[in-house]
Design goal:
Layout lengths: L9 H7 L4 H29 L1 H20 L4 H19 L2 H8 L4 H29 L2 H21 L3 H5 L11 H5 L3 H23 L1 H4 L3 H29 L2 H21 L4 H29 L4 H29 L4 H19 L14 H12 L2
Organism: Agromyces badenianii
Pfam family, one: MFS_1
Main location: membrane
């Protein structure tokens, strides 16, 4: 739920704290930049501390910095606290799924089904709750996130056993700090990371810039991105696995990336029609759900590297791409036209498509058999945790 809780209050923050749209978009940049950089080291940390401690540290950091953001008096402070929040986010999302599968008492398959359902529900409800809380005050979603993460932290302390007891296999083999950077030397992983960098620019223009041209209040934005979250969750959990069971993963990417570019172009033309722009945002969510899952599935299959290392390397580059997009979109809107960010984002997504197209030889391995349930859920986790 914490993923989309803050999105509906961006215009309210800009108005209440007398910040420009570009300054407000830096809330995403500081968060994503630190998340991306920290992802290079999360596999090193979790392999030494163990999953439970890593989860608790990550959640504890989020609680502290989300609460501090909610109590801030200026946008500069919020930007700084969002950076600390990003560190906690990196530690949490890199460890969550492995812990859940390892701790399953009634079999991993049933646990994964419940987990996917909870994840999808959270992605959808987060923006709606953010809109409801933001309707009262822009501070509400920040404090709401802190409260939600505190509940998660307490639940882990009370219900999750120690690592060895939960997994039955003890801690994983410690990894080298340089492992994710070295992983990017693999051609397949490099192609996927490059494509994800440009794809994520489109993702975050749609997510982080759209609240400004829509012109809705916090409640209206909450309902809009509730629809976006439902669309993304449904296609992540149901449509993406169905497509990859029938088509090669690279084929799915070759269809979905140009489709997303077309949706972004449509959003640019609908910039003065809020109703049509809402439609573009929700349809974009449908495509994003497929792309998030399939791209991360490809990462899981692309190399013989430890999955946590490959995921950390890929996610680090992906989040860095997302960090660039929000303030760049705001500046394009200021310097050129409100529609310019959507057209630029469409171009960026097409670059991602060309990277996949021309790198197809390096991606032969990703077109293997459908993933087992545990890996499918891992793809959904990492893909939707942006």
């Amino acid at each position: 739920m914490g993923i989309g809780l803050v999105d509906p209050i961006l215009p309210a923050i800009a108005e209440s704290l007398e910040a420009t749209p570009t300054e407000t978009e830096m809330l995403f940049t500081s968060y994503l930049l630190v998340t991306g950089l920290a992802m290079f080291g999360t596999s090193w940390v979790s392999s030494r501390l163990g999953a439970k401690k890593t989860l608790l540290i990550g959640l504890g950091i989020i609680v502290v910095f989300a609460a501090a953001a909610g109590l801030s008096q200026n946008v500069e402070s919020i930007i700084g606290f969002r950076a600390g929040w990003g560190l906690g986010n990196a530690l949490f999302i890199s460890t969550a799924l492995a812990t859940i599968v390892g701790a399953a008492a009634g079999g991993s398959a049933s646990a994964i089904i419940l987990y996917e359902a909870a994840l999808g529900l959270g992605i959808a409800i987060g923006p709606l709750l953010g809109g409801l809380l933001g309707h009262l005050s822009w501070r509400g979603p920040f404090l709401g996130t802190a409260a939600l993460m505190a509940v998660g932290l307490i639940a882990i302390i009370v219900f999750l056993n120690d690592d060895a007891d939960a997994s039955g296999a003890g801690r994983p083999e410690p990894t080298r700090l340089s492992a994710p950077l070295r992983a990017l030397r693999q051609p397949a992983l490099a192609v996927l990371a490059g494509a994800s960098l440009f794809y994520n620019i489109g993702f975050f223009v749609l997510l982080a810039y759209s609240p400004f041209p829509l012109g809705f209040d916090a409640l209206g934005l909450g309902f809009t991105f509730f629809g976006w979250g439902v669309a993304l969750a449904v296609t992540s959990v149901f449509l993406a696995p169905a497509l990859t069971a029938r088509m090669r993963r690279t084929t799915v990417l070759g269809i979905a990336l140009p489709t997303l570019a077309a949706v972004l172009v449509a959003g640019g033309f609908a910039i003065d029609e809020p109703g049509w722009l809402v439609v573009c945002i929700v349809v974009g969510g449908l495509v994003l759900g497929v792309l998030n899952t399939v791209l991360t599935e490809c990462v899981m299959e692309a190399t013989d590297l430890q999955r946590s290392v490959a995921s950390s390397a890929y996610s680090a580059v992906r989040f860095l791409g997302g960090a660039v997009a929000p303030p760049a979109a705001a500046e394009l809107a200021r310097l050129i036209a409100p529609s310019a960010p959507y057209f630029a984002a469409a171009g960026s997504v097409l670059v991602a498509f060309l990277i996949v197209l021309f790198g197809h030889r390096a991606l032969r391995r990703v077109n293997g058999a459908p993933e087992p349930a545990a890996v499918e859920a891992e793809a959904i986790t990492v893909g939707d945790a942006a």
